[in-house]
């Protein structure tokens, strides 16, 4: 009887071994998994230049930075704020225009520096700046007009001056950028910020949907292709031009 009990115990022990090994492997895998917080914050361990070089939506900008020699600046200490045009923003210029720009290092450097601001400005800080400027201008206008009736009606009808919700940032090109924030949407000149607050070790990146062209730089922007009128057969069987 004892032999039978010992035999059963040995069999049960052998059957339990695979489950113990599996549990140990699963436990090791769980122990080495990267926490979600670390995955989300990986960009915070990269410089601006390094991040742009890794983002598949910024490959044309990365190429331009390499050609212009601006990489060392954006890989340096900073902090900087970069308004980064997406690939689609470069595509909107047209291939011929981009090729021409790449072949003109001085113009290319000026254009890229026009997208970089010395200092770190998040979307929240830009919004706060625009709001503060609006308040300051409204207070100045109120003092000058002493609370005139026209100012009251203008405010009620939403007829505030467009510049009242704007602020300016000075770029590395020496030119100012108008930035504004309305209903949570941040604008840089005529470009919209599509992705905000990508944090890097030496500043912050905002992706925008247009390439910003500084004053004094002339680019031949390729116009959108016009649809060529197509020929089609009308109801009478005659071939005509579709307008």
Automatic annotation (TrEMBL):
Pfam families: Fasciclin (PF02469). It comes from the Archaea. Residues 45-212 form the FAS1 domain. One of its GO terms (cellular component) is extracellular space. PANTHER family: FI19380P1, PERIOSTIN-RELATED. This is Fasciclin domain-containing protein. It comes from Methanoculleus formosensis.
